[in-house]
Amino acid sequence: MDSPSSDEGTELTWLNVALAFGFIAFNVIFSYVFDLGVGVSLLVAATRCVVQLAIVGTLLQKVFETDNPWAVAGIAFLLNLMGTFEIVVNKSKKRHQNMACHFFPSVLFSLLASTIPISIIGVRFAMSVTKFWEPAQYIPVVGMLCGSTINGVVVSITYILKEMQENRDRVEMYLAFGASRSEACKPILVDALRIALTPTINQMSVLGIISIPGMMTGAILGGSSVERAAKLQMIIMFFLSASTALASICSAGYTISVVVDREHRIRQDRIYSKSLYNFSFSLTSWGLSAMVGLSHKVRNVIRNAMRSLYKALVGGFAAKDNAVRGAREESGGLLERGLSYEDSPPLN
């Protein structure tokens, strides 16, 4: 028998979200006290989480009500597009030349080529949903696939570009001995794909015994039976592994084709490490600068308060210790003999 749904039990409001936000506030205070330097990042990430989920919740509610396949397709494309922006602008520390003509389209193609076919085939056959475009079934699957493939694409691209810069001599040696660019870069490609797939493999290894994943937990809290939630989690994990592998292969292969040209030359001039935050985010940069300044002031206030509290505690203990010493000197009669506590002979 299925457990009661969350709608019948507990209705969550923004007050519940605000109470849960207190855990983020604890992390921020912890960061400021120990000078970790991640307080602003935590606040920005938490704010983005709230805003993005609120927008997605409102948008998906309308899509679920319409049950339009074109609306579902638009949401799927939007998720992949936003995932591409996240990789290009935020996640990837290294990128190759010409974002508009090479990097951005290659990442978008990698995400679309992996998430769309796997989600369609998986939802239709593995999940036995006749109308695979059903919003309540298809959109969550595409969202999870996008989130998983982002990490794989970022890791594979960053590793390849880093190796091309740091181990250029080894690749050039292979090219000088007559190897093609695919043969010379094969060891780097293999290592990049292995690193990209390692988190997914580790995650599948610990499911069930060590950890209960979020998708299974959400299904149980939503009223689904434990058996069905477990089977759904198995299916989703197999989707994630295939999607991550396919997206990593596409992005890594295209990256190698850009960095090593058709003449089998390594083009380090096409590799960039600079951030793209400043290309259209001046207002965001101003807001972040203001938040950083405010965070420094808050940190100084917290530090001063902690120091004052520490001094007060130390002063209180010192005064108590002096009082105890004075009492012991008076009780021992040392003061009458003109001796202090330090001048008293040691006890055998």
Automatic annotation (TrEMBL):
It is found in: Membrane. It holds the Pfam family UPF0014. It comes from the Eukaryota. Keywords: Membrane, Transmembrane, Transmembrane helix. It is a multi-pass membrane protein. The chain crosses the membrane at residues 12-33, 70-89, 101-126, 138-161, 204-222, 234-256. The keyword rRNA-binding does not apply. InterPro entries: UPF0014_fam. One of its GO terms (cellular component) is plasma membrane. Belongs to the UPF0014 family. This is Uncharacterized protein. It comes from Lentinula lateritia.
